[in-house]
């Protein structure tokens, strides 16, 4: 079982010929809206990867549709609260080549209380996963509570904050971050990734695949990316992480879990959107990756 303390956002997509430079005003060629937030994306990905996942989060009075959408996608929504603050949202600029930049308003994601977190995790069992990102509050409390209850803790360190990672560093069993974030963490801690007190670190490398650093085994493994025509990179990292944690939770060894996550991410970047277009397990199993 996966307990995901995660954000729920309304994603506003603006399709542009190019990403705007500082001070530049450009017109969008197209607009659409959907369910997103790193937390919601990972919950949907984990559910579509055949894991049981409960989402811990909050929406505003305008967010009922987001909760219903998560439920439709197979996510346990009993621990999503409705608060007085507006639902979080993200304005996402996507250029013709599929690259993006994103501005996030946290809204209800920062109104999650320790009482909400504690009530949810009280239902967890030893060996379950706590999954978190850096778009909510209550992370230190959740991590400490989870470890006390015997849960495994997977942390996707985005949006990246070295201080946020360091606050929960000694609780983490699995850390997922990209190459830039990994370099920033090394600089902030003064320690190489191989010296961190974390059993497993997975560093995503974009088109170059990913790297698995097993500090428990003292090994480093690299995995090439699956070639794909990129349409939109938004949500690909979240899809990878959701599938990775779900696969580990279902008992797959790390190398197979990483490969499954990379296959899911490869299908994801060939699509336009976030949570609403995350591939399911059957799509991945049926797809010929060459």
TrEMBL record:
The protein's name: Ribokinase
Residue ranges of every copy of the Carbohydrate kinase PfkB domain listed in the record: 13-279
Quaternary assembly: Homodimer.
SUPFAM superfamilies: Ribokinase-like
GO terms assigned for molecular function: ribokinase activity
Transmembrane segments: none
Annotated CDD domains: ribokinase
């Amino acid at each position: 079982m996966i307990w995901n303390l995660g954000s729920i956002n309304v994603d506003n997509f603006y399709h542009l010929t190019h990403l705007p430079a500082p001070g530049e005003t450009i017109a969008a060629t197209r607009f659409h809206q959907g369910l997103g937030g790193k937390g919601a994306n990972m919950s949907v990905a984990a559910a579509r990867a055949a894991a049981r996942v409960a989402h811990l989060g909050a929406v505003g009075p305008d967010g009922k549709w987001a909760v219903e959408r998560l439920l439709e996608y197979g996510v346990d929504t009993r621990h999503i609260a409705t608060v007085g603050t507006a639902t979080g949202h993200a304005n996402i600029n996507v250029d013709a080549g599929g690259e993006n930049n994103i501005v996030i308003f946290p809204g209800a994601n920062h109104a999650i209380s320790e009482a909400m977190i504690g009530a949810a995790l009280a239902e967890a069992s030893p060996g379950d996963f706590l999954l978190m990102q850096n778009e909510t509050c209550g992370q230190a409390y959740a991590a400490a509570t989870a470890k006390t209850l015997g849960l495994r803790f997977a942390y996707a360190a985005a949006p990246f904050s070295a201080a946020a990672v360091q606050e929960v560093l000694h609780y983490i069993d699995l850390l997922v971050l990209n190459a830039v974030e990994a370099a920033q963490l090394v600089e902030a801690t003064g320690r190489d990734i191989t010296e961190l007190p974390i059993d497993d670190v997975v560093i995503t490398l974009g088109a170059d695949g990913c790297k698995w650093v097993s500090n428990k085994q003292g090994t480093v493994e690299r995995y090439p990316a699956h070639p794909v025509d990129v349409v939109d990179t938004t949500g690909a990292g979240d899809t990878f992480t959701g599938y990775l944690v779900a696969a580990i939770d279902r008992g797959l060894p790390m190398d197979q879990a990483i490969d499954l996550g990379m296959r899911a991410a490869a299908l994801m970047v060939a699509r336009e959107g976030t949570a609403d277009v995350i591939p399911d397990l059957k799509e991945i199993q049926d797809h010929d990756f060459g």
